[in-house]
Structure formats: C-alpha cells, structure tokens
Amino acid sequence: xxxxxxxxxxxxxxxxxxxxxxxxxxxxxxxxxxxxxxxxxxxxxxxxxxxxxxxxxxxxxxxxxxxxxxxxxxxxxxxxxxxxxxxxxxxxxxxxxxxxxxxxxxxxxxxxxxxxxxxxxxxxxxxxxxxxxxxxxxxxxxxxxxxxxxxxxxxxxxxxxxxxxxxxxxxxxxxxxxxxxxxxxxxxxxxxxxxxxxxxxxxxxxxxxxxxxxxxxxxxxxxxxxxxxxxxxxxxxxxxxxxxxxxxxxxxxxxxxxxxxxxxxxxxxxxxxxxxxxxxxxxxxxxxxxxxxxxxxxxxxxxxxxxxxxxxxxxxxxxxxxxxxxxxxxxxxxxxxxxxxxxxxxxxxxxxxxxxxxxxxxxxxxxxxxxxxxxxxxxxxxxxxxxxxxxxxxxxxxxxxxxxxxxxxx
Length: 410
Description:
The chain is an alpha/beta fold. The chain has helices spanning 80-88, 91-96, 101-113, 126-129, 161-171, 190-196, 214-223, 231-238, 244-249, 268-283, 289-295, 298-303, 331-337, 360-365, 386-397; strands at residues 4-8, 11-13, 18-20, 23-27, 30-34, 41-43, 48-52, 54-59, 117-122, 139-140, 145-149, 175-179, 204-208, 226-229, 253-256, 321-325, 343-348, 351-355, 370-375, 378-383. Helix content is 31%, strand content 23%. The strands form four sheets. An eight-stranded mixed beta sheet has the order 3-2-7-16-17-18-20-19. The protein is globular. The mean pLDDT is 97.
C-alpha cells in the first residue's frame, strides 16, 4: 500500500491562513507536512481548493429517508413530540421498515459522503449504531454519551441525564442531547432540568435550542457548552429557528448539522447555503462564509472533543481532506457555493473514499475497495457499492424508490 503522497491545489486552507499554490503531504493516516512534496505527488486539476473534510455534528442515520414528515400545510409544530407522533403513524416509516436497519445506516452514511462529509455524529443509542459503525464508509463518532431530549417526552436513550453526563466527564466525551426543541413550559424548562442534574457545562452538545430565552443564551455561554444549529429542519417543523445571532455574538461554540432528511436538508452543503439564506432573511445581513466554514470543521471537532485529531489541516492530525473546485476567489465563498458535482476528492485518514476517475491510481495504491458510479451525469469513484445498496432498497420496497440525497444515475 502507498504510505506517503502529496497533493497540490490552488490553495490549502489551514486554521491560520490560506496557503496559495499550497501542498499537503500525507503519511499513512496523518498529515505529515503542509508545504512539502512526496515522491508520489498529485497535481490536482487547476482551480481547486484543499479543505479539511466536513463534519456533520447532528444526523439520525437510521432516519435518513424520504419523503419528509412535517406539519399540515399552513401550520407548524409547537414541540418535537408532536412531530414524533406523526412520524410513528406515517406511511414513510411503514415503508422504511421493509428495509434492513443496516441498509438504513448505509443510506445515511452515503448521504454524508456525497457532500464532502468524512465524520458524522449519529444521534441514536450505542446499542443501535455500534452494530454498523465499523462497516460504514465514513467515520461515525463512537465516543459520546447520550440523552434523547431534556423534556418529559424523552425516549429511554442511555442511562439518564445524571449518569450519562457523569460518564462524559469521566471519559472526556461529549454529552449529546436535544434541548428546548419546543415552546411549551415543559420544553422551555430544558436548561433548568439539566442544571438540576448538574449536567450543563463544557461537555454538553445541545441540539436545536429553538426555545432558548436570552437568559438561556447567557447561561450557555457561562457554561462553555456547545450548541448545534439545524436551520432547515427548524424552519420546516416550527417556521423559525434559534436566536443564532445572539448565540454567535455571545461567543458560544456553534456547529451546523443537517438533522435527518425526514425534516432537514438533503446534505451539509445545502445546509450551509440555507443557513446563510435564513440568516440574511432574519437579520438583513450575510453570515460570513468563513464563519459557516468553521461551523462544519473546527467548531464541531471542538464540540465532539476530537479537535486534536480532525477539523483542521495541521501536521499530525488525520488526513481527512476535501478538495473542491475553486468557484470563487475567496475559498470560503467557494465552499458555500459548492454542490456535490464540485467535489474533486474526499479522503478519510489519508485513504480516498470519493473522487474523480482521474484519481483512480490513488484509490488503487491506497487499496480502497471502490466502484464507479454516475452522480448527476458525472462519473465518480466511491468507496463501497452505493448502487447495489439502492437496488437492494428498491427491491425491498417493491418499486423504483428515488431518494434525492442519493444522487446516483441508475
């Protein structure tokens, strides 16, 4: 297997600076150096940017399916529990039940892979996703503790707030919980519920937070916890989202997540564009492209307690790399503009998992088991066999099921 290689593009985007005409050298799983050349070297196509691979901090891989399940036209939900009741009796769930749980997990993984995501956090209990994490084509975070949501409607995920939070502190894991995803008194007492259990601090990764008061925002900053913004899902379900400008102004660590396709965006690239669109609509100004970039790289790596391994392009970190077309002079703006057909290469710990056919030799030398697929009319190489996966799903449901987040030409 090829151990060392290097890539050169228009620019390498590190945490401190943009290195024009930069190179990145990979040795086994890690970044060996920024700026030097290996014996096996690839000059990437002209006008390309080299980024850290993206991190989707909130998804439900088992729930990535279509069509969406939402409120009746002209209405919105008051709390997440109302959506969950609709979900349980939906025809979508009935149809999805015909598909194996393993195939559902692979669907969610490929949804992320096709949008440049190498790492995802799956908000389900370990007893469910531990069965599939080792087989999936991307990294799914295994080191976390969990509580479903801070309300009386919480599902029995984990061993309760107090125990799960204590485990997070002991192991230096993130404690992940849906928080204040609703507007009745029960949901809006979520912060107080966590405080009651002494479980609101720097270990917390709090998802949605649409019911936050100004006082909750101040408490979150003081607690040094992380918050997860899922604007597309929030708008679809509740016709509003969290107080994102106040949260950012407070200096809270904010990450961007897709939620599942049952309510959220088809992929993280779309979510980034939607985040800017809704921010502009809410506040009459642009959310800086670099800020959005941070929400899908360095911020989630910090939230998930893995900032020493991923989230930035630095020596000794994992070589999780995303190469995209240079669609704008500003690399951060180019990332916001990028669609799935603008991806040149995606690597996970140095191994290519998605890329152009011109890079086939790298796939072969790195011993990646891959297939050739057509993605919106463009041939691409991808780890595994997502075409076979889709055909298995179509066979299971009994018709040619189309899933827009799986952009394959069959």
